[in-house]
Design a protein that fits this description.
alpha+beta, eight-stranded mixed sheet, 22% strand, elongated
């Protein structure tokens, strides 16, 4: 959530910064500015005047004759009723402003490129050698032929956009988890398996219900609980209302959870396979950092992502998202996109974002700095979205005979197995 006082003091900055996200947000920022600047100050002034009158009259009443005292008390009752009505109006106006503030996204960082959509994202660098297989197949053709992903039976059981991981594919999931742990736990990450259901207050505080975010999540209305779409949504609120010692930051977590997304806006594309599904497993890095160190921490998370993908020896590129393609809470996001030879395109595998103090303000997560407390900055970064990583492995390690080689860094966790082949 944006700081309302700061918005009022730096209105021009917020209008310009939020306007970079698109015309819709520019209009909302302008509307909020109008509310803040043209709030009915006369009501506030009248309140102060009437309260002063009551204070003065309260001191005067004991000195008045009985008849005048009764008349004055009657007048004060009307004044008190007027004060109650005015207070109600002021509270309602504040609620309206709070609601509008909640519907504003985090302002993009200055170095975020301007643009309306993904076509304006900036490729920063590429890494790795692309496959020289003459006729690479898409992952689903390879996986179904090997019997390691079953979409048809999943549809029979759960409907569309679900899948079974079978045999080596399921084993690869756990190999990826152990591989990521071997890299990240050395970097002071604490492994955590968080809840996959969180309250509406926490989902809102993380910024995932604002805008059109509510369309993407599953809401259990009877319990007012949401299924998480990424483990960061339940890791962030775990320190709600707490204050870190300065020496304890950065505080890093590596979360593993099953995630759920409605994929409401993606009908008609990626409907087959496991690229865009309603349920998937994910390893997520999360960090609470000092404000002045948060940019450095984001670069660290990105470096960890690149290290993981370089270890898999899969070609990828790093993309800096433009202002119009940022997620609602994010002030800056980098995507990791892996090369998929069977499809002949780069596809997003994960991202790392800084949300600055946008989430910590509502969650009241602070750090003690000598004589004062400051809001921490909160950051997240995908270690592995398991399904998408399996796609990248299958497409990049497929062999001409239809088998799939296993990346060397994962073989240790698969008892030395080097190839996934059709059973005899």
């Amino acid at each position: 959530m944006i700081d309302a006082k700061d918005f009022q003091q730096r209105t021009d900055y917020y209008i310009q910064a939020i306007g970079r996200r698109g015309k819709r947000f520019a209009r909302e920022a302008q509307s909020l500015t109008s509310l803040l600047l043209h709030r009915d100050t006369t009501k506030q002034q009248e309140l102060e005047k009437l309260r002063a009158e009551i204070n003065t009259a309260s001191r005067l009443i004991p000195t008045l004759p009985a008849v005048e005292k009764k008349k004055k008390i009657s007048e004060l009752k009307k004044t008190s009723d007027r004060i109650t009505a005015l207070e109600s109006d002021v509270v309602q106006a504040s609620k309206t402003i709070d609601l509008q503030i909640r519907n504003l996204p985090n302002p993009p960082k200055e170095d975020v490129p301007d643009g309306d959509d993904a076509s304006h994202n900036k490729v920063l660098r590429e890494w790795g050698k692309k496959s020289d297989l003459k006729k690479p197949l898409d992952y689903l053709t390879v996986a179904e032929d090997l019997g390691i992903i079953d979409i048809k039976r999943a549809a029979k059981v759960s409907g569309s956009r679900f899948g079974y991981l079978l045999g080596p594919a399921a084993q690869l999931e756990f190999a990826l988890i152990q591989y990521a742990q071997s890299i990240l736990l050395r970097e002071n990450f604490t492994m955590v398996i968080p809840p996959v259901m969180i309250t509406s207050q926490n989902m809102a505080a993380m910024g995932y219900l604002a805008g059109a975010g509510g369309n993407e999540v599953y809401h259990l209305t009877e319990d007012d609980l949401y299924l998480v779409g990424t483990s960061e949504q339940s890791i962030g609120p775990m320190h709600r209302g707490e204050t870190f010692d300065e020496q304890a930051l950065p505080k890093r977590y590596l979360g593993f959870s099953t995630c759920f997304r409605r994929e409401a806006g993606s009908y008609g594309k990626d409907t087959k396979g496991i690229l865009r599904v309603h349920q998937f497993d994910k390893l997520e890095m999360f960090s609470f950092a000092l404000p002045e160190k948060s940019d450095e921490e984001q670069e660290f998370l990105l470096a960890m992502q690149e290290k993981l993908w370089q270890g898999l020896d899969i070609p990828y590129r790093v993309v800096k998202l433009c202002s119009g393609d940022l997620g609602f809470p994010s002030a800056r996001t980098y995507d990791i996109e892996a090369w998929l030879p069977g499809q002949g395109v780069y596809r997003e595998m994960g991202s790392t974002s800084t949300t600055t103090d946008y989430q910590s303000r509502e969650l009241a997560i602070r750090v003690q700095r000598q004589e004062k407390k400051e809001l921490v900055h909160m950051l997240n970064g995908t270690a592995f979205a398991i399904g998408r990583t399996l796609i990248a492995i299958i497409e990049n390690y497929q062999q001409a005979d239809g088998s799939v080689a296993i990346p060397k860094v994962l073989q240790t966790y698969l008892n030395g197995q080097r190839v996934i082949a059709k059973p005899d």
